[in-house]
Specification:
By secondary structure, the chain is α/β, with parallel strands linked by helices. It has one domain: 3-Layer(aba) Sandwich (Rossmann fold), CATH 3.40.50. About 35% of the residues lie in helices and about 15% in strands. The protein contains ten helices and eleven strands. It has helices at about 5-10, 25-40, 65-75, 105-120, 120-125, 160-180, 205-210, 230-235, 235-240, 280-295; strands at about 20, 40-45, 55-60, 80-85, 130-135, 185-190, 195, 225-230, 250-255, 265, 275. Helix 2 packs across helix 9 (about 235-240) and helix 6 (about 160-180) crosses helix 10. The protein is globular, with a radius of gyration of 18 Å. Belongs to the short-chain dehydrogenases/reductases (SDR) family. Keywords: Oxidoreductase. It holds the Pfam family adh_short. InterPro entries: NAD(P)-bd_dom_sf (IPR036291), Sc_DH/Rdtase_CS (IPR020904), SDR_fam (IPR002347). This is Oxidoreductase.
Length: about 300
């Protein structure tokens, strides 16, 4: 049975718990924020282009602007019970760099969230039982982090390889947070939301959408078997942010059905599970150290 984010929180009272959802003004981020708020949480939504959302506090934040991230974290006051790292970009057609010199998908999907999480660490620790929920993707099965050319300076830029790398990096972030911050009571996990029509596909051309079975010849969106609604796609991250996780596990990756994934080799033939490179503890530490140097 495919549950919605609201259904995942049935019977759970989040009154008094403070949470942040990045990229929370549309798609699965918005549905995550709405579900958490409806359960009683005090939710702050961040977005590059904020708008008014009833019941939600919306703050302007561009994750590629590390000074803006630093200002946001410096301005946060009091405990933080959950951080949902949802904001992201996908399949940017041409290689672009952030102001910090990182490939833009990696900068947005990973580095900005790394800066946000580490900047909020003391507030997560103050909560005593905080959660970090990272929205990853089945794309992490296609590529790990290429530490020898992480920003595509020498290898040919490919939009989908760059996206896959950024999503594998998100899982590695959960792995390393789980290791480093366990004594602080911080639990961190990543999840695959599944296939959903959202603004995330704005850079995907029509030919690719048709090849995916997600668009017809006239440009109308299709919903083939396996596609979810945004409310359903928000369920895995919502579970990780606020619902009891089986065995209180940390540093793991959950499938779109909200079950913990099996570790697999990864590669072009992998259809489910989490790639071994996404769970590699040595890679997680190496990426963390690289990110620390990047944010200064």
């Amino acid at each position: 049975m495919t549950l919605t984010a609201t259904e995942v929180l049935t019977g759970i009272d989040l009154t008094g718990r403070r949470m942040i959802v990045t990229g929370g003004t549309s798609g699965i981020g918005l549905e995550t924020a709405r579900a958490l708020s409806a359960a009683g949480a005090d939710v702050t939504v961040t977005a590059r282009r904020p708008l008014h959302l009833a019941g939600l506090r919306v703050v302007t934040l561009d994750l590629t602007d590390l000074d803006a991230v630093r200002a946001f974290t410096t301005g946060w006051d009091g405990p933080l019970h959950a951080l949902v790292a949802n904001a992201g970009v996908m399949a940017i057609p041409e290689r672009r760099l952030s102001p910090a010199g990182w490939e833009l998908q990696l900068a947005t999907n990973f580095l900005g969230h790394f800066a946000l999480a580490t900047g909020l660490h003391t507030h997560l620790r103050a909560a005593g039982d905080a959660r970090v929920a990272i929205v990853s993707s089945g794309a992490q099965l296609r590529s790990g982090v290429d530490f020898e050319d992480i920003n595509f300076q020498r290898r040919p830029y490919d939009p989908w390889t760059a996206y896959a790398q950024s999503k594998a990096a998100g899982v590695l972030l959960a792995v390393e947070i789980a290791k480093r911050w366990a004594p602080d009571g911080v639990v961190a996990n990543a999840a695959n939301p599944g296939r959903i029509h959202t603004n995330l596909q704005r850079h995907v051309d029509a030919a690719t959408m048709r090849a995916m079975g997600a668009m017809d010849e006239s440009g109308n969106l299709l919903h083939p078997a396996g596609f979810k609604t945004p409310q359903q796609g928000a369920a895995p991250a919502t579970m990780l942010a606020a619902a009891p996780v089986p065995g209180n596990v940390t540093g793991r990756y959950f499938e779109e059905d909200r079950h913990e994934a099996t570790v697999v080799p990864g590669g072009p033939d992998a259809e489910s599970g989490v790639a071994s490179w996404s769970m590699d503890p040595a890679a997680a530490t190496r990426l963390w150290d690289l990110a620390e140097r990047a944010i200064g």
